[in-house]
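User: I'm putting together a teaching handout on how multi-component assemblies are represented. Below are the sequence lines for each component of a complex, exactly as they appear in our records. Could you produce the 3D structure of the whole assembly as structure tokens, so the students can see both representations side by side? Please keep the chain order the same as the input.
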Amino acid sequence: MSQQPLTTSVQPTETYGGDEVSALVLDPGYCSTRAGYAGEEMPRQVIPSFYGHIDGRDIFGDEVIVPRAGFEVRNYMNRDSVVEDWDAATKIWEHLLLKRLQPERPTPPNKNGLNIGDDGDVAMGDGDNNDENMVDNLEKPLAESPLLMTEAPWNSAKAREKAIEISMETWGCPAFWLSRTPVVASFAAGKATALVVDVGGANASVTAVHDGMVLKRSIQKSPIAGLWLSNQIRTMWEQNEPKVDLVPTFMVENKKPVEAGAPADARLRTFPFPIADSFRAFEEERLLTEFKESVVEVWRGPGRYMAPGNEDYARSQPGRVFEMPDGSNQMWREQRYKVSEGMWDETAAYASAGADEEGRVSKGQTILSLIKASLEGVDIDLRSNLIANIVVTGSTTLLNGFNDRLNMELAAMYPGLKIKVHAAGLTSERRFGAWIGGSILSSLGTFHQMWISKKEYDENGPGIVEKRCK
Amino acid sequence: MSQSGATVSQECITAYNDLKLNKKHKYVIYKLSDDNKQIVVDSTGGGDEDYEDFRQKLITAKTKSKSGAVGKGPRYAVYDFEYQLKSGEGIRNKITFIAWSPDDAGVMAKMVYASSKEALKRALTGVATELQANDPDDIEFETVIKTVSKGTAA
Ligand SMILES: Nc1ncnc2c1ncn2[C@@H]1O[C@H](COP(=O)(O)OP(=O)(O)OP(=O)(O)O)[C@@H](O)[C@H]1O
Ligand SMILES: [Mg+2]
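Assistant: Of course. Below is the structure of the complete assembly, with chains in the same order as your input.
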């Protein structure tokens, strides 16, 4: 995943930091995990939270997820964006923090057991280089680096304790902090109080933040996010005339150009081993993300897409051509609006089969319902301040038209109230909002007083995280 | 303590009490010290100054970054609003906390203020309402008084 350079007009005129120690910032999401140094404006490393599993070992990073025999793709999180497999989480985080970022550390790199395997993979846990071994070799690999991690606002107490335990005991971090993603995303927008709308991969959520604290009763979430949209696209392609075959890039050996709507003229690769569904699904997701970036759009109004006349109007507008990896291509017109409409209007959703078992969207799951329910969960006096300070984050909000629609719907829902949606103009800021907030927070000169120190941890145990990181 | 670790200097509380108890000021504007470690008093006002003077002070507030560059600056403020009730039932006073974070201030400055605000809010007891404002329109007198009075001002 490439990083977007900052244009000069928004480039901060300073680096945030100033402290000698560079803290590490780790922001795990269901689709990707982001890591980098405090005080920097972008994460240096962004890798999929999906990883490969082959012959009893795990391998990490975009570039190692390629077709192989007996290869499976897994995710260390569950669909709630909460860590499910702690062994894998620890390994993937070590891969990011130790191997990819290589912060200064006591042990020289040639002795730290992080040597790259022959095939370019990071083979953790295979052969004689097993994982315990690796960490032992390193002794305390992060003994010099304070670590700030982010978490979903509904993260469990157990998972929070586990995170500090790994950081302190396995890695030997001298200091640790856990920030909830909506809090740091609202800080990054310069707000202590905000209604944070985060539409990511596995989850969409709305959370009220007041004076830098999450209001627990405001937390609302639903699966109507990026992966759901992917399934909507799948269904749309299946129902299309002619049906669109979802052939991911890795399947295509070569292709010839064809007319729009004509069958593909391509030679597909064959493999002498079966391709796991999990690998195929991962590859499909890449293609679906491309389609979202370049074709899908949110209906901006007036009214909802399903209102009489709108579909005909959309059909008359210029379309977008999308070429599949096999060369087949067609023009997408009204469908590119229709496919995202279920986010706003449950009656417009395709009843998708496939991975999304729930199929239909229920009324309570749309973004607007989440916002409504979230506001109903907070003190009535706070509501107008929250509506005037809405912060939009998460990659699915990059859909063209998303903010316009949100504004329009909110104005209709709350007539007479001042509504202000803050959405960073830079796509990178919207994709990495929580990471950026964590980066700045942990680089503030005063933040050293906030960290949970190793000493405090040793005296109190992992329960300290519940007390301190409220 | 706030999330940033910044603390509140005693003078902030003294000035606030002068406003609340002694009616010595109409408003107090607070800022972060140059090293961002402490919240301090930027200015106080009252007497023959009116709301617009206060608003101009916020709009023109500056912050110096670490590198020395001067740009727009966020601020905190308390303002003791006084208004007539529409219903004719007399006059009301409401001490209002304003978090001023102009959209065009630097990201670093905004972040320092956002993550330090809680410390000040906690230190000032008896604030009736608060608002978070991001552009000059947000702090127009008409807009603010409507919010503060919940529409009951004449
Ligand atoms: N430009 C874009 N337009 C629309 N959708 C996009 C765009 N770029 C990425 N996506 C989608 O955004 C989703 C990932 O979002 P994000 O990175 O915010 O998720 P995450 O933080 O990893 O996951 P979660 O928040 O659910 O734990 C994917 O489903 C991807 O297809
Ligand atoms: Mg996320």
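A couple of points students might notice: The radius of gyration of chain B is 15 Å. The pocket of magnesium ion (ligand 2) is lined by residues A 29, 198, 200, 394 (CB under 6 Å).
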